[in-house]
């Protein structure tokens, strides 16, 4: 099993009781948040696995997008959220790419907790 997450990230995930696993495919490293609960009544699924790819230089270099399995649609209109309808193959799965970019990462300060807050915000405000 791969272990490359910084210890601060590992402590954060364990402290929030978020099940996770570290995955590698080729030169790409990522963390999968397993059975992550979605905002109630927002999507056609209640929980998903979330993939966060960690770029070279992480945690000083920010993760960019995130990816879900299974693919979700907004319950209110039975449609994919904006900028969340492109497939991304990784670790043997076809992930739903959520194109959300980060221009406010603070090297030496931010970590997986920042990315999770960004993901939670994106899921709560998906349109």
Entry keywords:
127 residues, alpha+beta, 6-stranded antiparallel beta sheet
Give the arrangement of secondary structure elements.
Layout: H1 7-15, E1 20-25, E2 28-37, E3 47-54, E4 66-69, E5 86-90, E6 93-98, H2 112-124
Q: Cα distance, first to last residue?
A: 37 Å
Report the C-alpha radius of gyration, rounded: 14 Å
How many domains is the backbone divided into?
Answer: 1
Unreliable residue runs: none
Across the major sheet, the strand order is 1-2-3-4-6-5
Helix coverage percent: 10-25%
Indicate the overall shape.
globular
Number of E-state strands: 6
Protein structure class: alpha+beta
Give the overall average pLDDT. Answer: 95
Give the ordered list of helices and strands.
Answer: HEEEEEEH
Helix count, DSSP H or I runs of 4 or more residues? 2
Specify the biggest β-sheet: 6 strands, antiparallel
Strand content: 25-35%
Question: What features would you describe in this structure?
Answer:
The chain has 127 residues and is α+β, with helices and mostly antiparallel strands. The chain has one domain. The chain has 2 helices and 6 strands. The chain has helices at residues 7-15, 112-124; strands at 20-25, 28-37, 47-54, 66-69, 86-90, 93-98. Strands 1-2-3-4-6-5 form a 6-stranded antiparallel beta sheet, with no helix packed on it. A hairpin with a 2-residue loop joins β1 and β2.
Summarize the structure in short.
The chain is α+β, with helices and mostly antiparallel strands and 127 residues long. It has helices at 7-15, 112-124; strands spanning 20-25, 28-37, 47-54, 66-69, 86-90, 93-98.
